[in-house]
Write a structure and sequence with these properties.
This protein is mainly α. The chain is 58% helix and 3% strand. It has a two-stranded antiparallel sheet.
Amino acid sequence: MSAFISHNLKPGGIMVSPSLHHRSSFPLQLSLKAPFSASHPLVLTRRLFLPSVSGIWDALTGGNNNNAREAVLAIRRGMLLFRQGDVSGSLAEFDKAIQLDPRQKAYLWQRGLSLYYLNRFEEAAEQFRLDVAQNPNDTEESIWCFLCEAQLFGVDEARKRYLEASVAETQASHAGSIYMFKMVGIRKLVAAFSGSREGEYFYASLYAGLYYESQNGTDAAKVHIVAACQSPYGQRSDDYMASLAKVHCRCRNWVFN
């Protein structure tokens, strides 16, 4: 991630200080004490920060771009609709944002997620590849691109196409997600995080389920994603991905309550 208050010029990811190397591209580790200390982390997910490439630029330059502001509002509406389970409605708002401000397209990872749940995998993969091109250090978008291409080409071909993150990001990736998608034991991974912080267990379960789904392992996918929804983090967090886990279950008619 880029330093200071930026989202890598990307929706949803910010870095407070170049000296703060968070443990993952999933939850952002912050400390409320000065100096920052990894021994007192506060999980503050990058999903909580609203995207606005153009908004930041216009604020810095004193611009007065009504379309840019309307685009940010459209993204906000799209995110809300997705959380509520209206995936088609969310995509319509994200597409509206791009029409209003084309600069947004390369950073709209939320649009990629909506496309995935509408089974528009080719477009979703393109969206995630655009995002990774802007931020090569983001492991999470690489994984979603893999998931889309597994649906299109099969797992073996998707693995060949896998978008490698930088060495630094791979070392910092959340809950071993990179290793998960490189065939290290999924069950061991989830078990290892069963007693960890709530967010770590949630993400391990969510991405284990997504991995199994890419392998057409529907039953195993259901077990893990339902577990993610039922976890304390899945139930209480405002993380966009906690909403995504619930949307995933609803799209497949899985009961998670």
